[in-house]
# Entry
Amino acid sequence: MVKRPAANPRRRMLLLKTAIWLIGLGPIVWLTVGFFRGTLGVLPVDTIILVEGRWTLVFLLATLAVTPVRRITGWNRIIQIRRLLGLFAFFHVCVHFLAYAGIDQLFAIGYIIEDVLDRRYITAGFAALVLMVPLAVTSTKGWIRRLGKRWRKLHRLAYLSASLGVLHFYWKVRADTFWPLVAALTLAALFAVRLAYRKRTPKKIVRK
Amino acid sequence: MIIWTRKNSDIPSSEITPESVYINRRKFLGASAGIGAAAFLSRDAAASPLAPRQEEEPNTWEEITSHNNFYEFGLDKKDPSRNAHTLVTKPWTVKVDGLCNKPGDYALEDFIKPSTIEDRVYRFRCVEAWSMVIPWRGFPLADVINRAEPDPGAKYVAFDTLWDPDQMPERRWKPRIGWPYREGLRMDEAMHPLSLMVNGLYGKELPNQNGAPLRLIVPWKYGFKSIKSIVRMTFTADEPPTTWATQSPREYGFYSNVNPNVSHPRWSQSTEKRIDGSKLFGSRRIDTLFLNGYADEVAHLYEGMDLKKYF
# Structure
């Protein structure tokens, strides 16, 4: 790709963020319209859970793609969209979980606990969700400042959370593992890029 | 229990029963429901988070024909209703072979003709924990088995679904599952009067997505046992390999009887989502019954068997 001189990098970032907002809210609009038009199928709750689960993974992987893209392209400003992507992943996982716990299981806590403990795909998915909570909470400027260096360490949990999310997807499907494998390969590729660049940068002095 | 049976001996299978018959039935059930309303409300207020088991109205034609698992036509529930129009059901031949005296290739009409067609309303419980109530039209499976005159050594009967990639778009799956789809029953299960060969729905011709022109319905087993679009019936001495039990033996057994006490490894089978268009989200959660509520009729078939082992 030819690198055009960024005539107005601010404007470009604004456009990019607008696009993320539209894509991020798109599934909710689509589900809401579909729900009222009755086009979500005979079991709309299953469609809601499925669609929201998929978008959670899309946003999680997009969040984790920011740094690799930055390293490869040298486009430093892209870091500005990472928080937005991550928060949309958190938003969709919340809808995903609430649709399962509320609409599907009717907040029957006993059944939900049984599911979380006994069904490995739900154990993995629930763990992924729990791990995302501190990341969402500490995504504000204040927390970034307060945590300092520890913030970056903490936010490496995003990789663990995404891995568990992909595992959850893989364990859930009945037979067609094509998309779970695509997600797993994407995650592995993103991790590989990160490791490759990490090797290149000289190790900083480790402070005890 | 058969929820509802109507003998239909005088009417040829081709004649269409008006849907009003079913609508009248719904009205009847609606009226009878009023009688139990008090008991009903008090149960509703009980601690169980589940909807009480109401009287069981058939699901609508729309629900039954737009929410299907028929992987040859796609993996999404809506795919079969979108894609199955490519299935050619006329002419149709059923091959009968294996351990029997009357093997052969039977034209569908000849296969069905000697039997008395009747309408039966059965519960249908999918292994994925959703369920419906469905007014099938068909005839006892025992009829065609008797006509084939199985050998005494025939202990099982297996069935194949048509596999024709030109008519069936879902090819990505071929190497994984090994088409054709195959199912089977032990002979005593197959001979049980509840086991039904189905060629109609709501008194009309069976739609392609529901397994036209001929499918099996075994109402006390998970839905995937009720094989669709049958082209072959084979009598065997040994338990035949069946599609899902082969694909994932840890999760799906040969018997696959509906059993709330035996969880699928990935989800509970103790409750189910009964599809119900009057609910905001299209279903109500109810308790799953042992053998899908047909225990009085079929539990004796499994006497002395450990159903946790033979799931």
In short: Chain B has a mean pLDDT of 84. Chain B touches chain A at residues 49-50, 63, 66-67, 71, 75, 77-78, 128, 130, 172-173, 176-177, 247-248, 263, 265-268, 271, 273, 275, 281-283, 285 (CB under 8 Å). The radius of gyration of chain B is 19 Å.
